[in-house]
């Protein structure tokens, strides 16, 4: 927080770096609502230059609670603006108006697609808070600029390069020499057609470096956010309110030139677009898939494996001394897995074969964020039990062997 009304939102990186937080020093002669810790802001930017020198830095100013790129401004922070504390304070007073704003660090050296900046809209759904259970759509939704990327100070105000992705009519029909329309436009991040046009390029880099980094930052965000609200989940469960609660998230993610993901923001308004913008994003099947995953149709495949699942859970819980809610949580996790389709998959909890899970379990500060129920779910996963199944070409689970004839499940809902 850099003032009572403006929040500094630096991107997260693997390197430890102190973000600009509240300081007691206000901007001299600034408006009453603008009490900015300019010294820390300056120190943060100087630290960035120690990591990688830039002739200037770009910062994004956006209204807190804004939507659909409305009210976004981009500003260049030149070297002379960081000459001393006073000049930095002057820059902040000039660019941050009274009101409630987020001042966000801009990623200067992003991964690019055919030389164009992009970010990914990602779909995720939380199906349990404690234990945390989080599913992700296995393809990002690319938003690619129609202009060749430039970080030059003279281009800072050109939103068609930086934030209007894929772009407005003006972005597509401008005569600016940086305009280079992407044809064909990439509809997803699966396959060589996406990764071969990246910089850095290659399917291996995308699947083994960039995408796992995206998984990690999303789980990290949820573990941090959960700490403030998990007590509400516990209160509801103590009252016996065992109903299904889900939360649909749409994070926007960028990647730096080394493939490390950073969250731009997390949209939480449940905006499921289906095929509304099908020329760029055709997502009707994936939208149906998330409803199937959360049990909107009552988990119709459950009768095929219910008996085996119940027997395995009984055995596991006798050995593990499960709390009363654990059996239901394990059942729900298996049902969600067996009703995954169109590329949806679980990213938390997972086995230790996933790099982000190993990171959270073995890093001391993150291990403290894991609850006893989280740890119990990890233990369940180590048993390796699941119904025999395969995934078809569109990523939908097909049960290979049934326990019983298909019929009405106790999970069926009219």
Number of domains: 2
**CATH fold category name of the largest domain:** D-amino Acid Aminotransferase, Chain A, domain 1
Helix content: 25-40%
Mean pLDDT: 86
- The top-level CATH class of the largest domain is Alpha Beta
Query: How far apart lie the N and C ends?
Result: 48 Å
Under the CATH scheme, which architecture of the largest domain would be assigned? 2-Layer Sandwich
Radius of gyration: 24 Å
Largest sheet features: 9 strands, antiparallel
Q: Structural class from helices and strands?
A: alpha+beta
The parts where pLDDT drops under 50 for at least 5 residues are: 1-8, 12-28, 30-35, 404-414
What is the approximate shape?
Answer: globular
How many DSSP-defined strands?
15
Roughly what fraction of the amino acids lie in strands? Answer: 15-25%
Written overview of the protein:
The radius of gyration is 24 Å and the shape is globular. The strands form three sheets. Strands 5, 6, 7, 8, 9, 10, 11, 12 and 13 form a nine-stranded antiparallel sheet that branches. A four-stranded mixed sheet has the order 1-4-2-3, with no helix packed on it. It has a two-stranded antiparallel sheet with strand order 14-15. It folds into two domains: 6-106, no CATH class; 116-399, D-amino Acid Aminotransferase, Chain A, domain 1. It has 414 residues and is α+β, with helices and mostly antiparallel strands. It contains 13 helices and 15 strands. It has helices spanning 38-51, 85-95, 159-162, 169-173, 192-195, 203-226, 230-238, 284-293, 306-320, 326-338, 355-362, 364-367, 372-382; strands at residues 6-9, 56-63, 73-78, 101-105, 112-113, 116-121, 124-128, 133-137, 141-148, 198-199, 247-255, 261-267, 344-348, 389-391, 397-399.
């Amino acid at each position: 927080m850099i003032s009572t009304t403006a929040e500094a939102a630096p991107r997260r990186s693997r390197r430890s770096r102190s973000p600009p937080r509240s300081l007691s020093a206000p901007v001299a002669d600034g408006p009453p609502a603008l009490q900015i810790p300019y010294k820390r802001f300056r120190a943060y930017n100087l630290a960035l230059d120690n990591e990688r020198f830039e002739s200037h830095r770009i910062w994004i100013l956006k209204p807190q609670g804004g939507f659909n790129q409305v009210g976004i401004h981009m500003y260049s922070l030149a070297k002379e603006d960081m000459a001393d504390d006073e000049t930095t304070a002057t820059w902040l007073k000039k660019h941050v108006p009274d009101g409630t704003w987020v001042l966000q660090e801009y990623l200067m050296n992003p991964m690019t697609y055919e030389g164009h900046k992009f970010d990914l809209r990602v779909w995720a759904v939380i199906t349990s808070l404690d234990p945390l259970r989080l599913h992700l759509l296995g393809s990002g939704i690319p938003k690619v600029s129609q202009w060749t990327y430039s970080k030059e100070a003279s281009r800072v105000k050109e939103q068609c390069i930086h934030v209007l992705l894929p772009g407005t009519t003006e972005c597509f029909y401008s005569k600016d020499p940086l305009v280079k329309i992407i044809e064909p436009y990439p509809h997803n991040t699966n396959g060589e057609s996406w990764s071969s046009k990246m910089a850095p390029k290659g399917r291996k880099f995308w699947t083994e470096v960039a995408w796992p980094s995206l998984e990690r930052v999303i789980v990290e965000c949820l573990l941090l956010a959960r700490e403030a609200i998990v007590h509400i989940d516990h209160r509801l469960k103590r009252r016996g309110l065992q109903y299904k609660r889900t939360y649909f998230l749409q994070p926007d993610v960028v990647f730096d030139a080394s493939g490390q993901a950073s969250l731009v923001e997390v949209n939480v308004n449940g905006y499921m677009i289906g095929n509304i913008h099908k020329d760029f994003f055709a997502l009707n099947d994936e939208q149906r898939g998330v409803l199937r995953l959360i049990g909107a149709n009552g988990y119709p495949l459950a009768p095929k494996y219910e008996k085996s699942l119940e027997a395995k859970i009984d055995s596991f819980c006798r050995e593990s001394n499960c709390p009363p809610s654990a059996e239901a949580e394990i059942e729900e996790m298996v049902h969600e897995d067996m009703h995954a389709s169109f590329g949806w998959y679980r990213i938390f909890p997972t086995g230790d074969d996933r790099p982000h899970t190993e990171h959270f379990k073995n890093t001391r500060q993150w291990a403290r964020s894991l609850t006893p129920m989280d740890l119990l779910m990890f233990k369940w996963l180590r048993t390796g039990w699941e119904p025999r199944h395969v995934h078809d070409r569109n990523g939908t689970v097909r049960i290979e062997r049934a326990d019983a004839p298909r019929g009405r499940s106790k999970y069926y809902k009219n």
